[in-house]
Specification:
Radius of gyration: 24 Å
Shape: elongated
Structural class: mainly alpha
Distance between the termini: 32 Å
Number of domains: 2
Number of strands: 0
Number of helices: 15
Length: about 400
């Protein structure tokens, strides 16, 4: 292995901190105590909100909780699936989720939204506040509350939170935590309408509405916001890009504001409401796609540096390393297969290359047993040997 390739691999692993472990318990870090305090406050406030309902509305609360957990697991699995290269430590991901579900929701957003809504009612009247309060309070309050979460994670794990892709992924989990708690709030609110005379009907309606709206909701908003924070602050792996940072911070606030002001903007027109909803969703998804496009080249570049020496040793080809660099490259590489079996083999080799990249990150480039096994798996796939029993 040439010295230049070995040095490029070492520099990539140092810049990205792929393979680093995360320790939550940091008694000498004041941010750790702030995290405990705000998350604990959120748990207490959440308990105070839901515990009085556990009697008469206990069934609705239980069903809403089960639906919320299932939804969180499904979305969480998807977010982990798209974490293409070296996955963030589970403890770090869970810390972000807990921040969103407790501190951001109950300790910050709920009281701040209520206070700002009250001020709007006093300043502009209750009719105006009913139409516009949600759209002019929640986007600013909630995105800030969730955005603080990425700053907390940066303070707790500065070596692990370095690239815009880290901001997108961790932001999605912070938003998922917030979404889970908010869905529970809305579902229970639906069940308690009409003094709980029709709990099931109200609950089903609220759950269905929230599942639909979750497609364009807090995970997307917070992913964009947190990626913007990474661009705005800069890191050893990402030079500061103030324009991109501000754009990705402002966009989710605008999208969130339009989404929450939908009825007021449409002025009672169902057609206009549908048009605005579709336009807002398309704009949000386009912004997310652009954010991934912006973040991808640096991640792909680092992955190529990590896997580059494997080309020289003959474990991987240049085409295979290129295919491991992105979804589009992988599709092109797989599509070029001669037949169905060849395409299947190519797909498995790319996945094995990504596994090797993750193992190299864990070992810091050293030849451990896991590395030897990963290389052997690639060789086995290439020549079509059966899986060892």
């Amino acid at each position: 292995m040439s010295t230049d390739l070995r040095d490029a691999r070492a520099e990539a692993l140092e810049a990205t901190a792929w393979g680093e472990k995360f320790t939550l318990f940091q008694p000498r870090n004041i941010v750790f105590w702030m995290l405990l305090w705000l998350c604990g406050t959120g748990v207490v406030k959440g308990w105070q909100m839901f515990s009085p309902l556990s009697g008469y509305f206990g069934r609705a609360l239980l069903i809403a909780s089960i639906v919320g957990v299932i939804s969180a697991l499904v979305w969480g699995w998807w977010f982990r699936h798209i974490d293409r290269y070296e996955r963030q430590p589970v403890k770090l991901v869970l810390t972000g989720f807990v921040w969103g579900a407790t501190a951001a929701t109950f300790a910050i957003a709920v009281p701040a939204n209520e206070a700002l809504g009250s001020l709007y009612g006093k300043w502009f009247g209750q009719v105006w506040a009913q139409d516009w309060s949600a759209g002019l309070s929640a986007p600013f309050v909630e995105e800030t509350a969730k955005g603080i979460g990425i700053v907390v994670l940066l303070a707790l794990a500065p070596r692990l939170v370095r690239t815009p892709a880290d901001g997108l992924l961790l932001g999605a989990f912070i938003g998922l935590g917030f979404q889970t708690s908010e869905d529970l709030l809305y579902s229970v609110a639906g069940a308690t309408q009409g003094f709980g005379a029709h709990q099931t009907d109200g609950l089903v309606g609220s759950v269905a509405t929230r599942i639909f709206s979750d497609i364009i909701s807090h995970p997307l908003f917070t992913a964009l916001f947190c990626a913007g924070v990474i661009y705005l602050l800069g890191s050893p792996a990402q030079p500061r890009r103030i324009g991109r940072g501000l754009a990705l911070i402002v966009i989710p606030i605008v999208v969130h504001g339009v989404w929450d002001s939908l009825l007021a903007l449409a002025d009672g027109s169902n057609v206009l409401s549908a048009v605005i909803m579709a336009g807002d969703a398309l704009f949000a998804l386009t912004a997310l796609w652009i954010a991934f496009v912006w973040a991808h080249p640096r991640e792909s570049h680092f992955a190529r540096d990590v896997l580059g020496p494997e080309i020289e040793t003959g474990i991987l080809t240049d085409e295979e390393v290129t295919a491991a660099g992105g979804w589009r490259q992988q599709r092109q590489y797989v599509k070029a297969g001669a037949n169905r079996d060849d395409k299947k083999k190519r797909r498995h080799i790319v996945r094995a290359a990504l596994d090797l990249c993750a193992d190299l990150a864990d070992s810091k480039g050293l030849d451990t047993d896991e590395i030897v096994n990963s290389r052997a798996e690639i060789t086995r796939l290439r020549i079509g040997l059966p899986t060892p029993s």
